[in-house]
Amino acid sequence: MAKIPAFMDLITQNGEALVSGIMQMLERCPADLITVRREVLMALKFFTSAEMKSKFFPMLPRLISEHVVLGTGFTAIEHLRVFMYQMLADLLHHMRNSIGYDMIAHVAFVFCRTLHDPNNTSQVQIMSARLLNSLAESLSKMDSTDTTRDLLMEILEAHVAKLKIIAVYHMPILFQQYGTEIDYEYKNYERESDKPGTNIPKDTIRGAPKRRIRKLSIDSVEELEYCSTEPSSSTSADAACNRLPPPTKEDTKKTSPEAILTNMNALTAPPLAIVEARNLVKYILQTCKFVTGQLRVSRPPQDMYHCTKERDVFERLLRYGVMCMDVFVLPTARNQPQMHASLRTKDEKDALESLANVFTTIDHAVFREIFEKYMDFLIERIYNRNYPLQLIVNTFLVRNEVPFFASTMLSFLMSRMKLLEVSNDKTTLYVKLFKIIFSAIGSTNSGLHSDKMLTSYLPEILKQSTVLALTAREPLNYFLLLRSLFRSIGGGAQDVLYGKFLQLLPNLLQFLNKLTLVV
């Protein structure tokens, strides 16, 4: 290899013959000659990383095929697969702007499959996520068509499905290995009302949207059942051929999606290391952020089916993305105490920023519906001592792209006002969230929409705080809430809000004077 640069002129002149010879050697190499195939792949990598990479452009369909590059030998596939995909990722990254839509679609399918292949190492999966990000960048430079948007959605859905595998399968294993010394319990329930033994009073739930039926997608296939008794449209002969054999042990029957996922899909995959899991989550969320940005500028869907499908994908992205953020709570070594809540690594900041930016670029109606449904889930994860998730809340409150997030969160907190009569960790969090909302609205950067929103809630906040404080065992939370409200509007920067507060001020002062006399 060291002498090859001296003959680059000769190699360039005979480049097509050299490329054809390398491909024929790969196709005709016997399956058991692993050393020879490795040397040919090393030569192929050298040529593709030099000036001859353009000569391999017509050979891309053959280079992407494992059957052509790795052969049919089991040992060759197991030992050379990582090398092959690393070489392909580097080649395709540099040639991404030269290939057409059909080839990009084929490459995206191959590397989406690689991202989910449990036989690949975590480095290959991270590399696949980064390459898919590069392919999405190439798609953004093409003309916006329905097929381009569909391909971007398939890439996004593949990453969301990978987040689900990490959240359901890898995260419990990581907490068993690294979470023994920290005060944190990983929970994979979706919403606060899904917790076992949790009964939320009906009068504290205001306008909770009904749970929609999931549409079929890449990770929502119906449960697999042995000897299903449901009627089928196929013939009895076809049903007999397609029926799964009965299990040898009765206790091995899997009925839940999580059990099927663990037993069939991820059982052979080695558990991720903590550093690899963090990197994988970070790059997946970065790809989701870029793809979502491209979806915003592409042609929007016209039919209801695609709108519903996209809403379902973003709903699962919020759910599993927030669950995967728990990986940054874990220490990097075993038997190590938990990092302080105010200290965050660069990877965690990048992942949080990517997850927040995804939802600041989606359609406003989709954003509102998702967070009205999953606000309790987000706050429950914050309460579960994943305090850095508050950065997502702060991002939504200060960004003008989603001015109605404050209204959604304030409506949720108002439905929990009665719970503030006692002081515990959860009510302390509720009061803190009230303060964050009031301070964000009281800042000079808040718009007129935020002022009008809080103006509509102002009489109800004052009424509930004063009435509930009379009967509460610990009324301090209500007075802390009122103090933060007064501080946010005391500067008089918001004319509409300040004018509404002046109308309510006499009654409030009369109430406080009577309360002082009673005390």
- Alpha plus pi helix count: 21
Number of domains: 3
Largest sheet: none
* Rg from Cα: 28 Å
Strand content: under 5%
Uncertain segments of ≥5 residues (pLDDT<50)?
196-248
Q: Shape from CA axes?
A: elongated
Strand/helix succession: HHHHHHHHHHHHHHHHHHHHH
**Which structural category fits the helices and strands?**
mainly alpha
Distance between the termini: 90 Å
Average pLDDT, all residues: 78
Work out the helicity level. 55-70%
**What's the number of extended β-strand segments?**
0
Pfam families: Tra1_central
Protein name: FAT domain-containing protein
Region (Disordered): 229-255
InterPro entries: ARM-type_fold, DDR_Repair_Kinase, Tra1_central
State the main characteristics.
0% strand, elongated, DDR_Repair_Kinase, Tra1_central, FAT domain-containing protein
Short recap of the structure:
Pfam families: Tra1_central. With 519 residues, the protein is mainly α.
Describe the protein.
Residues 196-248 have low confidence and may be disordered. Helix 18 runs parallel beside helix 20 (476-489), helix 19 (448-471) runs antiparallel to helix 20 (476-489) and helix 19 (448-471) packs parallel to helix 21. The protein is mostly helical. The longest helix is centred in the first third of the chain and has 33 residues, at 146-178. It is built from 21 helices and no strands. The chain has helices spanning 8-13, 15-28, 34-48, 60-63, 66-69, 74-95, 101-116, 122-140, 146-178, 236-242, 257-265, 274-297, 304-324, 346-360, 364-383, 390-398, 405-414, 425-442, 448-471, 476-489, 495-518. Helices cover 63% and strands 0% of the residues. It is elongated, with a radius of gyration of 28 Å. The N and C termini lie far apart (90 Å). One of its GO terms (biological process) is regulation of DNA-templated transcription.
